[in-house]
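FAQ
Q: What does a multi-component entry look like?
A: The components come first, one per line:
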Amino acid sequence: METINAEIFTLTYGSMVRQLIADLEDISAVNKQLDEMGYNIGIRLIDEFLAKSKTGKCGDFRETVDRVAKVGFRMFLNTTAAVTNWNAEGTECSLILEDNPLTDFVELPEGCQNLVYCNVLCGVIRGALEQVSINTECSFVRDVLRGSDVSELRLKLLSLNKEEYPFKDDD
Amino acid sequence: MVAYNIYFFNRQGTCLYYYEWHRPKSVRQGAGTSADDQKMMFGLFFSLKTFAAAMDPRQDNKSLGAPLRIGEACTFHSFCTNNYKLHFLESPSGLKIVLNTGPDAGDLRDHLNYIYGAIYVECVLKNPAYTPGRPFSCELFTARLHHYIRSLGL
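Then the predicted structure of the entire assembly, as tokens:
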């Protein structure tokens, strides 16, 4: 698979976030915009993931999350995430990022303490899973940049869609 | 061997791309309009997939017409008639590729996967000007697709 220099990637991402802050001037708007950008990346990235990983089907949500954490993060960020804290129904879990290349060299300055710097990841996961008919919610609950010891993404399954015939019989 | 035409559909039934290399019986003589032709093609593989799943002798089968998730039931890869062979690839993301060739063509599953991963993903999805879910007509895609199809001897 095609690779790029990790530092260039990290710095490009950083300057993009910096530009968003300059343009939008409001941290919560930046968080929202990052999620939106991630979503648009995710709905495209899923096909690359499926084609290159030759993923056919996942038996259940647990298996899906496992693929995201082990294969997806490896393919696009050259890292992996640990999947923990499943709820009893198997519909919610946490992804722990031990190593996140996006946050290398990053410190949040004064006034940006509410910035979810890597919110793009939430959007990517949500967008990618939506394309395979899995509707989810995803958000950061812990963030190393805001003083936590690890970064934790909370992923919640909302619904699984089926394939419906898209046309009405009479038209 | 000969390749007749190729269709790309998304989950919503939108025909994202259509190309014909050789189609002796024109659309006008068949379905009438290309929109109807595409809709009939979508109906053909969609119904065939549902029937195939309902008649599966090996797996717990759902009643006919029950909505399925991709990958949940069995699916067909191709069917052959005395006049043509239809090759079908469906990705879990809902993309469906249909390639019609002469009946003497072999198993083209790997080749459809190549078209999906190396041509569609690279030339269409990675094109920043492309809006997902809209039909596309990207020159690079068309050129690479033709080149690949020719290299298969189709």
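Q: Is there any commentary attached?
A: Sometimes. For this entry: The beta strands of chain B are 3-9, 15-20, 78-80, 85-90, 96-101.
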